[in-house]
Amino acid sequence: MTGPRRDPDMVRPYVRTGGKIRARDDVRLESVLIAASGPTDSLGPDPRRVMRLFTGTVGGLAVADIAAALELPPSTVRILVSSLMDSGHLTSPVAASDHQPESDLLQEVLRGLRSLV
Amino acid sequence: MDCAPWSDPPVTYVPATVTRSAKIVVAGGFGVGKTTLIGSVSEVKPLRMEEPITQASAGVDDLRGTPHKTTTTVAMDFGRIHMAGGSLALYLFGLPGQARFQPLWEDLAEGALGCLVLADTRDLDASHDALGLLDSGGIPYAVAINTFPDAPGYPEAELREALALDPYTPLTTCDARDRTSSLHALITLTEYLTEHRSAAVLETPR
Ligand SMILES: Nc1nc2c(ncn2[C@@H]2O[C@H](COP(=O)(O)OP(=O)(O)O)[C@@H](O)[C@H]2O)c(=O)[nH]1
Ligand SMILES: [Mg+2]
């Protein structure tokens, strides 16, 4: 059924995600993905639509960008992307080991915002 | 900007220089200026996502014992600013502030640096749900009063009391239609986050 934190009155549609029902914790709306040179085996229709967005570009897309482009709910895209990371089709442009401490990120954001005014 | 092939709508790719991303949430009631603020600061055309949520009507059963359900679609706009020499993408998400969207918030606001709450003095009560969601989610926030022409002005102390703000929560004003004004509101939030976030994170159980 649903996880312990889920409100039983609220059920989100997970029908299009091929059975995977939880997103990875590190796959959030703002998480940027790039194509990995992974397997080119057969994928379902929605994972294929996701992967098609990455064809012919070195650029990345965040989970939210994918949800908007494909008109899919972001909760569904988080799960699709989690599966595609697990299967080696997508990867994040940062290695998990060189995550910056949060204070550095905030300082960068503050500097960045100030530079725009 | 390059476009995706085939029939899917065009997308603006994140430049290959971006290695990190962060998220700030913009919250508030309907019509308070979330879409406007995101549009005025975003460097790419703001986009929209839609999340359908199915909500059981409480206490109503049909003959099979299945609760009646209503489906609401929650629309969320977002934009993006590139910074730190193109290595960092800051995403801004507009999230509706109704309390019944709490499960959605848990999923979507998770990991946010913080939240800018927009408030309108013509309907301060509309902000309470958003403030409650943030308090219970442990997400730090600043409040910006959006200056609508026919909105009544109040002394700061009265506004703080009406919104039940902690004394250290930043309270500012902005015109969401104006890029510089919107950026200043975001700077006020981020200054507060850099000063207070580290301590708050240590106190928040994960
Ligand atoms: N005067 C004034 N009007 C605003 C401001 N922000 C938004 N508006 C207007 O208020 C209306 C609703 O804004 P919108 O951004 O769609 O609100 P949302 O529902 O929170 O996304 C629009 O017609 C905006 O042009 C503001 O700061 N000042
Ligand atoms: Mg809006």
UniProtKB/TrEMBL annotation, chain B:
Domain of life: Bacteria
Pfam families attached to this UniProt entry: ATP_bind_1
Record flagged with keyword Metal-binding: no
Keyword ATP-binding: no
CDD domains linked: Ras_like_GTPase (cd00882)
Keywords in alphabetical order: GTP-binding, Hydrolase, Nucleotide-binding
Protein family (similarity comment): Belongs to the GPN-loop GTPase family.
Protein name: ATP/GTP-binding protein
Organism: Streptomyces viridiviolaceus
